[in-house]
Amino acid sequence: MSKIPVRFKDRCPTHPGALLREDVIPATGRTKTEIALMLGISRQHLYDILDEKKPVSPAMAVRFGKLFGNGPELWSNMQTAYDLWHAEQEIDVSGIETLEPV
């Protein structure tokens, strides 16, 4: 039985661009320019994602999922976890009450 990895709440989830930059693209043996061409996007767009300057949109998740054969959910879920973590750090919800069902 394998264990599901646990992420500490005070640690920011990995941006999908970091996974692409550090592990996925190097494992293909292809250049970033080749990957951008295969995805049908500009090289600059890919570089912005790899540099964590742009998020992985649903459209990009579909493209990455097809190209790398792991489906769009992985890329979309990674981006959502990253975005939610940042929102939780930036938004003060201390003045909002939590409703209980009646």
Structural class assignment: mainly alpha
Listing every helix as H and every strand as E from the N terminus to the C terminus, the arrangement reads HHHHH
Q: On the 0-100 scale, what is the average pLDDT?
A: 94
CATH superfamily: lambda repressor-like DNA-binding domains
The biggest beta sheet reads:
none
The domain tally reads 1
**What helical percentage do the residues reach?**
55-70%
| CATH architectural label | Orthogonal Bundle
- Beta-strand content bin: under 5%
**Through-space gap between termini:** 40 Å
Shape: elongated
CA radius of gyration is: 17 Å
CATH domain class name:
Mainly Alpha
Low-confidence stretches: none
Number of strands: 0
Give the helix tally. Answer: 5
Features:
single chain; 102 residues; 0% strand; mainly alpha; 58% helix; 5 helices
Quick summary:
The protein has 102 residues and is mostly helical.
Characterise this structure.
By secondary structure, the protein is an all-alpha fold. It has a single domain, classed as lambda repressor-like DNA-binding domains (434 Repressor (Amino-terminal Domain), Orthogonal Bundle), CATH 1.10.260. The protein is 58% helix and 0% strand. It is built from five helices and no strands. Helix 2 packs across helix 3 (43-50) and helix 4 (58-68) packs across helix 5 (72-90). It is elongated. The mean pLDDT is 94.
Topology:
Layout: H1 16-28, H2 32-39, H3 43-50, H4 58-68, H5 72-90
Helix pairs in contact: 2-3, 4-5
